[in-house]
Each structure stands twice: as C-alpha cells, then as structure tokens.
Amino acid sequence: MKLANLLMERRVNIDLKATNKEEAVSELLEMIKAEGVRMNYEAVLSSIREREEIENTSYGHGFAFPHARTDAVRELYILIGVSRTGLAEKTPDNIPVRVVCLLLTPATIAKLYLQTLSGLAAFGRIPGNLEKILAIAHKSDLIKLIADANISVDKDLMVKDVMRHNVATVNPDHTLKDVANLMFRDRLSALAVVDAGNKLVGVIGDRDLIKAALPDYKSLISNLNYSMEVEPFEELLKQEDKIKVSQLYRTDFEVTTPDTRIVEVAAMMIFKDIRRVFVISRDNDLVGVLLRKDIVNMIIRG
Fold this sequence. Notes:
The protein folds into 2 domains: 3-154, Mannitol-specific EII, Chain A (3-Layer(aba) Sandwich); 169-301, Roll (CBS-domain). Strands 1, 2, 3, 4, 5 and 6 form a 6-stranded mixed sheet that branches. Strands 7-8-9 form a 3-stranded mixed sheet. Strand 11 and strand 12 (286-291) form a beta hairpin. The protein is an alpha/beta fold. The protein is elongated, with a radius of gyration of 23 Å. The protein is built from 11 helices and 12 strands. It is 38% helix and 19% strand.
C-alpha cells in the first residue's frame, strides 16, 4: 500500500495559525471535530502530551510527528498541517518546525501506526521536500508530492520502521578522549567505528573504556587483595589524548538490513543477549542502528 493512499485532503491544513506545536495539534484536531467525529478529545490531548514528555517529536528537517496510541480513537487518523511562519519549538537541528504530522491510532494497531510514522519521517528526510511543501498552493498538491515520493507501507514491520537513522560514529584515529566526550554529550553507551568510506569496522563501548583502565581485571576479581602500584583510572586519564580508538574497538558486532523483518532481529537480540544491531545498506554503508530499548519504546510503549 502506498503511504499517499492513507491521506485525505479534508485532514490537511496548509495554513496553520498556531505559534507552537501544542496549538498546532489542537488546530489539527479541529478538522476531525468538523467531520462530526465523536471522541474524548481531552483524553487524546493528554496522550499526545504524555508522549511528548517521554520524547520530543520534533525530529528535525522542519518536521514534527506528534502521535499517540490511545483507546480514545477507533481508527488511524493522519492529520497534516503546514506553518508558513514556523513554530516556536526546540528542534535538534535548529530548523523551525514548518510541517506537523499528527498520528492517532488505537493501541491495537501498532504495526500500521509505526509504518505510517516511519513513512512520513522518510518523506521528511528527502532533501528539498520541505521547500516544495512550503511552495504548494492547494491541499491536493501536498498529497501528490507524497505520492510522487513513492513511499510504501509494508505488509510486515521492518527494521527501517524502528531504526535510528542518525548514528554516532568515530573513526579508528579518534582518541579515547573523543569517545568519552561524545558518549557523555549524547548520553550513549557505545559508538560505531567507521572507516573513511563510512563502512562499519567495529564498535566501542563504555565497557571497552573501563577495560582499558583495568587490563588485569580478572586478577582483581579473583583476588580482592590484589594491590596496584598506580591508580588505573588516573593513569588512563593521563593517556586519553594518546590512546586511539584503533587500540580499543571490537569487531564482534551484529548487522542487519533496513528491509529485514523486525521480529527476526528482535529474536536474535534476545537469543544473543545484545542491545544493538547496526543497520547497513546493500553496499555495506552504515545507515542506522536498532536498539533493544527502541523496540520497547516504539512498539510496546508507542
């Protein structure tokens, strides 16, 4: 099924008057009210606010995707609004939110909801689409623009529907200090290691940094009275600008492709007790990462 087939002109507003995302959501909901649809709108708004508190749905590129799975609705609703002036919202890339895609769905249809959200996000990432949207004069032009992007909603839930597209990376020549700073800044526990061509060559995690400070950790565990002549972490800090990623990274990582079924990867993650699987293209370029916690957050939690 094509993503555009799920859209309706009467649920598109190409001239939002809202000044922020919450006002935009309320304005979009007015279109459903105008259709005479009866639902508990306060419960819907509460669910949307709750989701925003968990994670800001302004994803960058000028797009925001507020959404909620709630028993207050009985079917999937896709509402799209365009702000000509931009909304006063915090965004990861400092590009003002100009397009708001609101998704509402019952809690029982997680697959279609996630695929639709993924499809709209994929449309938003296409270079030039934001400018094209801001230039349209009619609602039908927006739906045609999405139709021309030829984005499909798959039969099965795929890795591409859940994976993170922005992957934090370092190269083998980066230092231990570079890694620690990036982990601290973005609250990460591991980074992908790539070569100059963006090919995945390894992974480096917080465990690897600690092991660098405690190379003889097995002796320490087996003998609690094991004495050290120097404080290991202090010594590590002295070398943080000299120790390279190439000395620490591991090559034992798992990969998958964007078009792999999510259930297959989830089963592998459970069987091998791993928290992340890197996503590569047919040319072996790193294109994303699937985290175990995202399967919980997006599929189970919504």
